[in-house]
Amino acid sequence: MTEGLRERKKRQTRQRISQVAVGLFVERGFEHVTIAEVAAAAEVSVNTVYNYFDAKEDLVLPPDEASPQRLADIVRHRPPGEPAARAVLTHLRDEVHRRDRRLGLTEGFGRVFEMMRAAPTLTARLEDLGRQMTDALAAVLAEETGAAPDDPVPRVVAWQLGCLHSMVFAEIGRRTAAGERPDAIAAAVLDLLDTIEGLLGERVLTYATR
After folding, report:
1. How far is CA 48 from CA 19, 25, 38, 109, 121, in A?
2. How many domains is the chain built from?
3. How many helices (H) and strands (E) does the chain have?
4. Of 12, 72, 145, 175, whose CB has the highest number of CB atoms within 10 Å?
5. pLDDT confidence bin for 5, thresholds 50/70/90
6. Is the pLDDT at 1 greater than 80, yes or no?
7. Per the database record, which ranges form the HTH tetR-type domain (predicted)?
8. What does the alpha-carbon distance between residue 156 and residue 42 come to, in Å, rounded to a whole number?
9. Do residues 68 and 129 lie in contact, with contact meaning Cβ atoms separated by under 8 Å?
């Protein structure tokens, strides 16, 4: 469906507010900038900011980009004949090749990463997000495979895929903090994904084949 003018303007406003906010957070620190200051810098009202973002943390981690359903959605939308683990690995590789902004493989992300790492509420949000992703994925795997409620396999597989997902982001963060360029980080992450795939057992790699 083609995006209408109203939807496009709303998306552009949302992006502008987020970009302005992140710029302020990087410059002064997440905890030292108020929503009122974000609104003033973005030339909108405080109410407008809250119309687009429920919480201050959402300005940095928008729910549509940092969604608890991320891994579950990847698995739900995989093509016929593809197992869950390979769907996640393939999706991550595609994002690396595209330099998807959600991975932080962009110039200047280092300062954003340092800002996030210095903000306890943001690091807590990321940790909670990881748990929610794993729980949502486990529910999808259990539903698709018809697993019994007390069957631990969907949870175990979801935990492994959640861990590999977290490892990718941790690797990006570590290398970003070390000052590596996005292209070098992307190449290292692709190598890491190959290593992970080589170490995963066949049962995990073939589990929940659609």
Report:
1. 15, 19, 11, 27, 23
2. 2
3. 10, 0
4. 72
5. confident
6. no
7. 11-71
8. 45
9. yes
